[in-house]
Amino acid sequence: MLILILMAAAALSGWALWSQRDKPRSAGGDARPDYVLNDFEVVVLDKQGKESFTVRAPKLERDPNQKTMDIATPLFLVPARAGGNGGPWEVRSQRGWVSAEGDEVRLRGQVKADSTNADGKPMNIATEELNVFPDTNKATSAVPVRLVQPGTIITGSGLQADLETKNVIIPNVKVRYEAKAR
């Protein structure tokens, strides 16, 4: 009886190991990342060698076939440009995706963008999706957006923004003015 139990245990162990083995991936299937960064900070430069943006996050994975990057809970820091209006941008989201050329960043899930305007007053944008184009310093969104500045709350559907000049266009807008506290 003991021999039968040991043979059954050996057979189950062999089956468990066999079922947990690495299976070859098909050519069209998801490929493993060619590299992974954990708890990192990267400064990305533009074509002139100036800082385009900095990204900090707990994890980044690069797709070896598409050359794109997926980022978990990124923080993007977009510096203020010389002659621009206001301070730098801090943009946070749950997920981020960077194109192979680094010319497009897609932010998804609880996107929050914070900066200051030319007068040094806070400017906050909240949405679920934001597409940022670092080379041109532009951002777009096709979903509901909320823009908060001192005394004003603007909500609407969609967004087109120039990150350098802080010029933000929100179509189909609803504006709420709040009295200043004395």
Automatic annotation (TrEMBL):
It comes from the Bacteria. InterPro entries: LipoPS_assembly_LptC-rel, LPS_export_LptC, LptC. Keywords: Cell inner membrane, Cell membrane, Membrane, Transmembrane, Transmembrane helix. One of its GO terms (cellular component) is plasma membrane. Gene3D superfamilies: Lipopolysaccharide (LPS) transport protein A like domain (2.60.450.10). GO terms for molecular function: glycolipid transfer activity; lipopolysaccharide transmembrane transporter activity. NCBIfam families: LptC_YrbK. This is LPS export ABC transporter periplasmic protein LptC. The lineage of its organism: Bacteria, Pseudomonadati, Pseudomonadota, Gammaproteobacteria, Lysobacterales.
